[in-house]
Design brief:
Length: about 190
Amino acid sequence: MIVLILFVVLIAIIVLSFIGIYNSLIQLRNRVKNAWAQIDVQLKRRHDLIPNLVETAKGYMKHERGTLEQITKARSEAMGAQSVGEKAKAEGNLSGAMSKFFLVVENYPDLKANQNFLAVQEELTSTENKIAFARQNYNDQVLFFNNKIQMFPSNIIAGMFTFKSEEFFELEDQAAREVPKVDFSN
């Protein structure tokens, strides 16, 4: 009788542990999805601001058509990217195009003094900061999730229910890693 009770208690502990691990995997996977959604919101905001910035600059930068077209093309590619890796690459290219744009803007003091341009630039800078924070949060959640599905004993349950590792959101282009230099001293 005691053996039967111990066996039932042992089975109950195993079942409860299984349920706890499974639920924690679900929770972490949902955190990753939520963190990605936060990045997606900020990227959309960034994509919405860029046309306003380009439109404001067009009148001043008539000889810089290639730079403006490059931003527009990079924005379109970023908006069309699907996977985390594709988005990371496309956003890196967009950041590189924006860096070049802000370097060219230095040659146009009237544009740098335009209130509309300054307002959009400030919004874009704020959005870039939010993207960086959201990317850090996303990568933290991916790290927790990937650790959980790779560590024993949760790796057994993760394998049973085909939990897959998530991809980090990393900028590939070195130019995109560099913060664009903006000089407001003029």
